[in-house]
Amino acid sequence: MGGGASPDHRPPWERMNTDQRDLDWLLAGLVDRAPGARHVLVLSSDGLKICFTAGLDEDRADQLAAIASGIQSLSLSASAEFGEGLGAGQSMVEFAGGVLLIVPAGQGAHLAVVADEIADVGLVGHCMNELVEQIGGYLTAAPRRLEHDVRS
């Protein structure tokens, strides 16, 4: 018998418990360090919100998680079809009034930031990468498994 610990298959939000306050503090810190950053959200790759800054309510966080997950999925498809298939780094969508940046944040997780259109996206991206390094120990968001899913 192997002595390794079995993987934790609980949803990410159930694994966060005491570390949640630390993670909330780290997310809020990105808003403070990157002028123009409005909202920060950590999401699972299947589109579930894990945690988010106070400027978002539950419904808007759900909306942003679904949008960011879809964009990352499209980016991964583009990598597979037109690149070397090694995954997607940062994705960015510019729109009137703002910009959405998304980066991988550990196995099965992403970090999304909505910033003002005048924000320095280089600085925001840099702060996002620093945050991903900081939160790596808090996150490993495994994709949801349905009860009828019999794959191992």
Structural class by sheet pairing and helices:
alpha+beta
Helix content: 25-40%
- Total count of domains: 1
Q: Please, what is the average pLDDT?
A: 83
Q: What low-confidence regions span 5 or more consecutive residues with pLDDT below 50?
A: none
InterPro entries: Mycobact_SerProt_Inhib_Rv3364c, Roadblock/LAMTOR2_dom
Pfam family, one: Robl_LC7
Protein name: Putative regulator of Ras-like GTPase activity (Roadblock/LC7/MglB family)
Domain Roadblock/LAMTOR2: 24-115
What does this 3D model show about the protein?
38% of the residues lie in helices and 20% in strands. The longest helix has 25 residues, at 58-82. It has helices at residues 12-15, 20-33, 58-82, 121-135; strands spanning 37-44, 49-52, 91-95, 98-104, 109-115. The protein has one domain (23-135): 2-Layer Sandwich (Beta-Lactamase). The chain has 152 residues and is α+β, with helices and mostly antiparallel strands. The radius of gyration is 16 Å and the shape is globular. The mean pLDDT is 83. Strand 4 (98-104) and strand 5 (109-115) form a beta hairpin. A five-stranded antiparallel β-sheet has the order 2-1-5-4-3, sandwiched between helices. It is built from four helices and five strands.
